[in-house]
Predict the 3D structure of the following.
Amino acid sequence: MCGIIGYVGKENALPVLIEGLRRESYRGYDSSGVVVFGKDAQIVKAVGKLEALEEKLGSFRIQGGLGVGHVRWATHGGVTEENAHPHADCNGNIFVVHNGIIENYRILREKLEKRGHTFASQTDTEVLSHLIEDFFEGNLEDAVRKALQLVRGTYGLVVIAKQDPEKLVAARLSSPLVLATNTEGGYVASDPAALVSHSNKMVFLEDGEVAVITEHGFQVSDLFNVSKVKEAVELEWSVEEAQKGGYEHFMLKEIMEQSESILNSLRGRLVEKEGKAKLGGLDPVKDRLQNVDRLIISGMGTAYIAALVGEYMLEEHVGIPVEAENAAEFRYRKPIISDNTAFLAISQSGETADTLGALREAKEKGAFTLGIVNAVGATVSRETAAGVYNHAGPEIGVASTKAFTSQLVVLALLTLYLGRQRGMSLVTGQRIAKELGRIPELVRRILDQADRIAVLAEKYWKYSNFLYIGRKYNYPIALEGALKLKEISYTHAEGYGAGEMKHGPIALIDENFPTIAIVPSDSVYEKMISNIQEIKTRKGPVIAIATEGNTEIGDIADDVIYIPKTLEMLTPILAVIPLQLFAYFFGVAKGYDVDKPRNLAKSVTVE
Ligand code: F6R
């Protein structure tokens, strides 16, 4: 969730650093800082938004071709300027920016203090600058290597030193770092989005690697100075894609582009005539997949909710046992895994700590590992045997929207891919493939109703509590609708399977407690109608998400949003869109910064 940027080259470093930090700021942060080496090292830090840092920088004229910057999301030590990065050693020679957590920092700090080092912050990071200072004998990378051999924890870090001033030294363990170069110099960042304006060819560091970046290129080695050969990955993301494209918020832009992002997820992957899905990333492991007799799908937050939908899709159409698992819980259970268990990690960022923890646990126990990842080159994609990229484009808004619908689409493709390997009929395959191909157009029809949904949000925004209910495929969508409302509008919302109502939640219902009922015309429609009637009997206002052509629901619910008819297994992709829009307009009506909800970060890289 913190962001790192470093630059060395011909240009003035400061504008490069600020631009990079701005592009990384979507991850969520509470303070920021930069250091640039010119005639001297100039360090400026500020609490709050990047504008506060820029305001402070206004009075400095920092010139110099080497520098690092950081946006911090506090873990150890409060949100203060002292705790903001970069962190210096005792003499103001060495400066460190760091993402991750140094677990043994207390012991290291005690030892360093005993040796005379004085600390200026409460952070775990500051031990790094002092430790490196301890080992520094004129060559920065040597000192970094020696220091890191004493460190326990996780890091993506970049270090610069006044007494070795032509380079950036970067190192990674469980916290992403990416390098790029062009004719102007060398760059390092924790997020490719910070570098897309400089190059689309990027080199991702692996765990245990150390990079020395100069104006003319870079060298990568391990902690023991054994050289590594690295290949650049070409990214498709353009600078424009990472910008708002005329919308007021990234979240709205990302909701409104779902017709296109879904099309991108489907592109080249449907073979309608044969009723099949082509998933190039899985072809090399096709035979291995044939032997899988159990599938665990895991993720966190919205990605976990996608896993729940996947459980319904795959069990119904592929016929193997599937379990959706919350990664944070899974990693600390004693999961029973056999050689023929496949573990599928779902993650937009591919860097979520708990998802990675669960993946590693499953791998260790012998599972065959797969991933569904949006961020190309991210850790989940590199640590799994095979997988499928979402191709949904960068998701900047903290609340996941287009990544979620893309995850559902990829799960539907996977259902088709595995189903046709395991006895799904040609006719069923063709029906699913054909309907998946129509989804972008059906999504567009829902998005055309955005203005109406904005009016509904205006009508309801003063209510403080909401219940979301759904059944079967749309039970997870009730969870997702409630999660979106909570995140974006800080409004209490609970998602339940409608069958659970009578077992407790119905006690909440009165005229001040609206329910959003997801009630498409599917196999559980009648049961949903009974649940809605029970709510109406208790005077609860009801907003229904129903299928176009339903003539009954208008007489039962207070308000209805209609979605087009589709196959039951694909209804979640459509039903979630009005709920995303409702949460968005609700948050806007309440006057909140919907792109950066309080207390949340885009990529949760610590437990
Ligand atoms: C909710 C949201 C989060 C993420 C979760 C997992 O809107 O965005 O719940 O879905 O933190 O993130 P990824 O998918 O990056 O692993």
